[in-house]
Amino acid sequence: MPRRTPRFTLDRLRTPGRFPGFLKTASVCALIAGLLSPLSQVAAAAEVTAANDYCGGQCSDILPPGENGNATLAQILLNQAFGTQPEHAEDQLGPYANLAKGYPTLTNATINTFFNDASFGVASDQVASTLSPAGRSDVTIVRDKKTGVPHITGTTRYGTEFGAGYAAAQDRLWLMDVFRHVGRGQLTAFAGGDPSNQGLEQQFWRNAPYTEADLQAQIDNAVADNGTRGQQALADANAYLAGINAYIDASDSGRYFPGEYVLTGHKDSITNAGTIDHFKITDLVALASVIGALFGSGGGGEVNNAVSLLAAQEKYGVEQGTQVWEAFRERNDPEAVLTVHDGQSFPYATKPASPQGAALPDTGSVTSQPLIYDATGTGGDATATATSATATATALSSARRGMSNALVVSGQATASGHPIAVFGPQTGYFAPQLLMLQEIQGPGISARGASFAGLSMYVELGRGQDYAWSATTSGQDIIDTYAVELCQDDYHYLFHGTCTAMDVVEQKNAWKPTTADGTAAGSYTMRVYRTKYGPVEYRATVGGKKVAYTTLRSSFMHEADSIIGFQMLNDPDYVKSPQTFQSAVQHINYTFNWFYADSTHTAYYNSGDNPVRASGVDAEFPVWAQSAYEWKSWVPATNTAAYTPASAHPNSIDQDYYISWNNKQAKDYSTASWGDGSVHRGNLLEDRVRKLVAAGGVTRASLTKAMADAALADLRAEDVLPDLLKVINSSTVTDSTAAAAVTRLQTWLTAGGRRTETTAGSKTYADADAIRILDAWWPLLVKAEFEPGLGTGLYTAFTANLPIDEAPSAAHGPTGAHAGSSFQYGWWSYVDKDIRAVLGEPVQGALPQKYCGSGTVSSCRDILISTLKTAAGKTAAQVYPGDTLCAAGNQWCADSIVQRTLGGIKHGNISWQNRPTFQQVVEFTSHR
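The structure corresponding to this sequence follows.
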């Protein structure tokens, strides 16, 4: 059958890289020759002088695969036919990948073998080009030879932001267009009806179903509420949009626009017919809603929590069942690794002494609120139905993919006496990347770093003149579920005693096959019912009364508010100290952990609009939609409320060190997702950094090595396997199969328990058999350990709250398989606590009973050996069944990272690392 172009999908790997049969090599070459004839942009080299830079050449960063995320049709055809890469499309991928085997011998002098020099400016002999966008005299865009990163320098504020918008469109126009359509729930109509595209637009639009008026109102409110800075943000955004649109016009007339517009049917490659729509300011809010939902909106899951609580109470009775549920929930586990570890307490979302207003569903009554209506063709087939179900589960889960890590060490423990930070966000791997690098220098702006494409009027994660900052997802609960009592019919509800109609928001999408996506024609309508308490997500009965469960997020209708905080972070006249840094990030309403380092100080602050809940309300469960249980000072028309003060958020200045890998922030500070227990991937950083700090003399190289070593560690092997083997080896293992498996596991553990190649580029793991055995064993041992004691119903309910495993080869999170980020969610803490209890070791925050073998070492040992034998007998093809990229049984490939195609350029996969996508290594030598 004819071969075809890869579909441009956001959630599933499709990289076969084939074109239709009629595009034979000769015709491809002819087409390329014709397409190369339009004029490309012309730019001359020029010297650029660095701005005030206090890092002394000791700031570095990296963002794979490369800065250039735009490709013309000719470049796409060359890539697909011959593997040719556009300039700067993947020149950061190799250095990023090479750290996995190169870190053991890393020194300060060799850091920039694996990272970019992130100093301000470009040396004269390294200037590749200089452009005055749209002929403006108040801004230049200089690109360096090594990476092609834009260095934007403006003499006016408007010109500076115009240049930022122009550079963003140069590097990410197609991606920006894709994500504004995701945010508006219009992806399938724009890019094609592939099931992955259906799933993504459904997942995000369910949580942010905004009308055009809603989007505009958020801009108006953000500007009105923030005085001079609000007015400046609006002016910056308009200048930024003008720059984007100037590039659209220039690339359209010059015919060097992204080739994906041709392949998706928006432009004609011969006549140039068709349009690329200009961006407008509401597009920025739509983009922000996607990024916020992905990385900065902790909470939700209250209905799932209620279902598992009811299952526990059904098995054990109300009192004991509640105790069992609380033990597995681990709201404030005393053994959890903490970012603020100096003993400070920051109570938030804790269990109330006397819960009030709970609205738990009647058993078996919960159903999800449908999103899809009037489906036709491929919008309503079996695949589409399954896709929709998965999107719904992802959107409503509290297990949001946090990603991102940070290692920050005070100058008291470093060799130089200056703080050192190695930090960055794990945002998945895409081609082009969601983030883009840039340097912006202009009136009131001086920064270099990464920004989300389409929102890059400011650097969002990066460095200023004498300070650097970064973030990790925090996940504290800013989303609550309300049970609204229905009246009249299923689409009216009681609001403060009045029967009120639900608002209906719809998005109709239809698609047909294109060169890029051959999915057959289809259509559907996404329909959301909105109440004053947020969108309807479930239907149920409570005490026999029909209710709709809604979700209310504090950042709902406030997607634009955070722009003020980012504006402040870029302003050298605002951020001058750890205190002013904390003040800046307090203006960011999304749930993030923020980290700071300058030449003398370090700091941390947890951001987000944390609502003040009514007395007695338990944030873990749905509550009645009644005045007594609403957020304090809640105003439905604007969705504003009283929020906890800055002092109540976990925060710190100059702690000896900070680590974060989406772990618990501080004592008594509850997060919405499950799994903050004795074993968390944050321990992989904590153990290494604590050891470095205790020894003293920390350097940029040693801290980077700690991060890189943790990035290859198997959390289960490092923190749980030793106790499992202790039980098994409590007596001689006589079974030959089990004994051989134990030997392999012990050998791997002795070698460090890492998932690493034998040699760089071998594409074969050292200790491959041991890794295969543990991958196969973990789900078997968890089930055998806990299901008999919990019972199938409760065990299944708990697995809905917290997945059993998240190994590198698992398909998990918004980015799917091959996404790098691993070991965030799993039952490792439960296994750890239970096995230690069985061994008679002390356990703080123990589970309510001993589950493995009913608590005896001998019976537990029998279970472990039995499941280990089964696991050892599984072939690699059974453990790693293969996918569109990897053959069954290819262990290395199953783990490998793929730059998931969002456009026409594809890249090879790289060896697994569990590390930030964009990453900085910084050590400032002086301060203003």
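The longest helix spans residues 227-254.
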